[in-house]
Amino acid sequence: MLSKSAARAFFLSGTLLFSAVFIWLTVDTFQRIPAQTNAGDLTESVVRGKHLWEENNCMGCHTLLGEGAYYAPELTRVYDRRGPAFIGQMLRDPEAVYPGQRRMVTYDFTDEQVADMVAFFEWIGRMDLNGFPPEPTIGIAAAAIAIPGGKRPEIFSQVCTACHSLGGVGGTIGPALDGVGDRFDRGYLMRWITDPQAVKPGTKMPQLGLTEEQRNEVVIFLSKQREAGL
Amino acid sequence: MKYQSQKVAYWFFATCMLLLALQIIYGFIMAFAHVGFDVLHPWIPFNVARATHTNLLIVWMLTGFMGAAYFIIPDECERPIYWPRLAYVQLIALVVVSVTAVIGFHFGWWEGRKFLEIPRPLDYLVVVDVLLFVANIGMTIWKAPKITTTSIVLFFGLLMAAVLYLPGMIPTDHQTHDSFWRWWVVHLWVEGVWELIMGGILAYLLIRLTGVDRELVEKWLYVIVGFTFLSGILGTGHHYYFIGTPSYWLWIGGIFSALEPLAFLGMAIYGLALAKKGGRNHPNRIALFWTVGCCVMAFVGAGLLGAAHTLPQVNLFTHGTLVTAMHAHMAFWGAYAMLILAIITYAMPILTGRKLFETASATFAFWATNIGMIAMTVAFGVAGVAQVYLERRAGMEFLDVQRELQVHFIGLILAATLFTSGVIAFIYNFIRYGWPVGDVEETPSSGAAVAAPAE
After folding, report:
1. Distance, CA of A142 to CA of A1 (rounded, Å)
2. Chain B residues with CB inside 8 Å of A136's CB?
3. Strand pairing partners for A63?
4. Mean pLDDT score, A189-201
5. What are the start-end ranges of the H helices in B240-332?
6. B18: which DSSP letter?
7. In this structure, what are the phi and psi dihedrals at residue A169, rounded to the nearest 5 degrees?
8. Using CA atoms in the order B192, B197, B199, B202, what is the torsion angle rounded to 10 degrees?
9. B33 CB within 8 Å of a chain A CB
10. Using a CB-CB distance cutoff of 8 angstroms, which residues of chain B are in contact with residue A11?
11. Cβ neighbours of residue A110 closer than 8 Å, sequence gap 6 or more
């Protein structure tokens, strides 16, 4: 039967061995991190963004690299998913972007700080994370209904689908956009996404801060959303 | 008790009760925010409540470990605390630092790094405070006529907890480095050296409560903490799957963290077997309930529920979802909260001289907290799995998924209410014990003669 001194020897030798292996792997990992995370792109702006991320305890609600709290969206790929325009609007006035929804603290970031946060998210989004976050493989995204009007413009997928769905893909905060081209003409759609309050005072639809070119792209795409278009 | 100076443990335990109550209040603030009642948002936004909730947890557990050490070490080593006054100073300092930190969180004074939010200047004070504590315990053991394995394991657990706080203070500009070092602290604490502390306190309780031979208890203590480090050190790898670190961590983290439940399984068998084997019928049965309950709930919460989402193939989908909250609640409750409540339940009759062993409130506290926590874990688990499927697998928008999950948070609040009623009963019982009187028991050993006078 095992003696106490043998048990102690098992404990001490196991602990020493695995501590040594762990330290060796740590050293090796630090040598490999730069290549895996594009450390060369770590500009001053990105570093400032990282410190803003910490000073404001963003991971007290959000997750980044899957780490943080589970009250607000995962932000690892937010740069690709939502784009810089949306991130900027969200950081300036979150309650305007998601009216009546779960609330985010409004920060008084300067334009430079917003740019730093965007740069930080862009850098994070390019890391090789061994497959995280996974692409959705079943259900809604995979079974998306075919829509008219060709490929969704990138700005549409980034900004509009945060609240609206089209062909079954997107949020449910605003109304679905299927057939929207039957209901509104281009002029109305343009006035609407340029300044929603002017068209319908008191509406919850936020001003999106898109450029002229982006608005045109979205309006042309939306006006093709007709039932007969397929 | 054997020595007047052990009395300081009472004040550490009282602090635990206070911080635990505060921690629960902040938990409720977050649960209500999840179902849409966020009226406190302008003053206590979610990230403040979250930082406060988790840091209060860490502080009350460290306070509990310190109280336990001040109670156990003199008893094991058969001599009073080396610097009795320092113990009080060190407690007051710890309370002042943690209260300052928690108030600071409400004004945005923090580091914004999960679990390590305490701002840097206060970090240094925490380290100094813990080192004073370790020195006090260390001197007590050093000058003792008798050194036991239990006290040595407990001491090294506490010392390493202090040392491993340091990697979290390495400044970084790189998010991956930041995360990497943060887990050196958090993981190597809760799945490493805190388990040494846990093993030490458990061994002490089992020796006292069951009367089983010390040699046997301590031999298995070595085996269990051996398994802890064998699996737990490289098990840190399960935090290095998806943060920009090499893919070999998927293999290493997966294999070694799959072994982590073994240490907890060992502890559960150890607790159950010794409780059964023990010939002595200790009158403080409720303390034995908490002790054995701790072994079992730690195995389920930390061991099984941890293993449930630790494999990289599973964690790819559950990483960063409420599944983690499910595991975390029962793991901390089973492994560390119940352990501290066990030592408090064991120590209170000895500290106060009142024998309130089998009261209805003590029994209610045990069952209500445990059933409440199991129900909370189920609520988090169902919400987490639903989140994984809707958000990660089906690609629904985050806020739409959260709306679907609200019903589970109503369940969580109901379960947490039951849990809280149990905690209230525990605190009520604690208060009923009254102040520590410090009657020093008559022992034939040199102990009583050497005992320091009351403060």
Report:
1. 59
2. 392-395
3. A68, A74
4. 92
5. 248-277, 285-298, 305-308, 312-318, 322-332
6. H
7. -115, 130
8. -150
9. yes
10. 222-223, 225-226, 229
11. none
Asked if the model's pLDDT at residue A158 lies above 80, the reply is: yes
pLDDT in tens, B255-275: 999 999 999 999 999 899 988
Count how many pairs of residues, chain A against chain B, have C-beta atoms within 8 Å. 214
**Cβ proximity of A115 and A48 under 8 Å:** no
Query: pLDDT confidence of A144, banded at 50, 70, 90?
Result: low
From CA B409, how far away is CA B388, in angstroms rounded? 16
User: Searching chain A, which residue's CA lies closest to the CA of residue B175?
Assistant: A50
Q: What is the ipTM of this complex?
A: 0.92
* Cα–Cα distance for residue pair B342/B346, rounded to 1 Å: 6
In the predicted structure, residue A140 carries a pLDDT above the cut 90? no
Q: Which domains does chain A have, with CATH numbers?
A: 34-125 (1.10.760.10), 154-229 (1.10.760.10)
CB < 8 Å to B180, chain A:
26, 29-30, 33
Question: Mean pLDDT, to the nearest integer, of B12-33?
Answer: 98
Tokens of B446: 């040199």
Interface check for A143 against chain B (CB to CB < 8 A): the answer is no
Q: What gap in Å lies between CA A97 and CA B445, rounded to an integer?
A: 73
Chosen from B175, B219, B255, B406 to mutate, greatest number of chain A CBs within 10 A: B175
Predicted confidence (pLDDT) per residue in A72-96, tens digit: 999 999 999 999 989 999 999 998 8
Of the partner residues B45, B114, B173, the one whose CB lies closest to the CB of residue A47: B173
* Exposure class string for B259-273: b at 16+ Cβ within 10 A, else e: ebbbbbbbbbebbeb
Architecture of the domain spanning B4-436:
Up-down Bundle (1.20)
Contacts of A143 in chain B (CB under 8 A): none
Q: Percent of chain B, pLDDT > 90?
A: 88
Contact B15, B91 (CB under 8 A): yes
